[in-house]
Amino acid sequence: MTIDISDSWSKLYETRKVIRENFPDFWKMRVIRKPMWAIRRFMKEGDLVLDAGSYNRGLYHQLKTSFQDVKYRSMDIDRDKKHDYYSFEEIKEKFDIVFLFEVIEHLNLQDGVILLKKIHHVLKDKGKIILTTPNVFHPNRYWECSHKVSYRHDEIGGIMDSVGFNVVQIYRVYNDSFLKRMFRIYIASFVHEYFSVDFAKSILLVGEKK
């Protein structure tokens, strides 16, 4: 049974606690270079996918490099660009995976919850959402005029749980040259943790429909 956080903040706090118990140490979470790494792990050939907030459909070309038989749909409110859908109300299909990359932070909290509920509705049983949002521990990642809400991993994970997703994995996303990545991850990581300032620009969560 899903909940409405506007009616029961206590239940949301409970779900956040579950996320913290399942993913107790943010600073020990695996660092991946790009979302495509997680996509390759959780997607399979022939999946029907929805790219929500797809902008210019650029993800389609990335997917085709790994999945020749991908069935791709795009959705965005920007009608100046060609998309399959411009609102969730138009959608009649059920998807294996929905991608939501760097979108939810542009909405206020209640609209973000509504968006996740709509994604839950258009997913098949056991379908997955792969979501990214700016990392609040990165010193300049969040501060953009169009951003409305910042999320720690337990906050966005708790909301996902509250609307009907099991959070199965959380990653930190950081891409840089090989030497810089190795230095940050294996040498300077304890300094970043001590000062609570991260080098990973985004966090990525994978949720499965309950």
Assembly state of the chains shown: single chain
CATH topology, by name, is: Rossmann fold
* Tally of individual domains: 1
* Assigned CATH class: Alpha Beta
Cα shape: globular
CATH superfamily: Vaccinia Virus protein VP39
Name the average pLDDT: 92
CATH architecture: 3-Layer(aba) Sandwich
Q: CA-to-CA gap between the ends?
A: 9 Å
Which blocks of ≥5 consecutive residues have pLDDT under 50?
A: none
Beta-strand proportion: 15-25%
Element order: H for helix, E for strand: HEHEHEEHEHEHHE
The computed structural class is alpha/beta
Rounded radius of gyration (Å): 17 Å
What's the number of extended β-strand segments?
A: 7
Helix content: 25-40%
Which strand order does the major sheet show? 1-6-7-5-4-2-3
What's the number of helices? 7
The largest sheet, given as strand count, sense and whether it forms a barrel, is: 7 strands, mixed
